[in-house]
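Hi support team,

I submitted a single chain yesterday and got back a structure, but I'm not sure I'm reading the token output correctly. Could someone confirm the output below corresponds to the sequence I sent? I've pasted both exactly as they appear in my results page.

Thanks,
R.
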Amino acid sequence: MISRVIGEMELIPRRYGVAFRDINGRRVVCYPIPLNWIVGWSREMVAWIRHGPALLSDMERAQAYANGFSKGYVVGAVHEKESRLSLWRDSPQ
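Hi R., thanks for writing in. Yes, this is the structure output for that exact sequence:
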């Protein structure tokens, strides 16, 4: 097989280029340099035909994910603080 799956913090093999990012993890799929463009383009074309054009760019999608993560973290911290206060108030003194 000529494709290579490269994980996070691994080096891309010589004469290989990134064709697409794997959606299931932090890894990329690489092919030899002339093929990576063809494979990446054909994969994008199939996705576009199936699902229509992307509404968000990769950068906008990453920013939305980061905002949702930080809001969830804040809500979780507030909930934890409130539960600690309720335990303190309900404890016998």
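A quick pointer for reading it: Residues 4 and 13 are 8 Å apart (CA to CA). Let us know if anything else looks off.

Best,
Support desk
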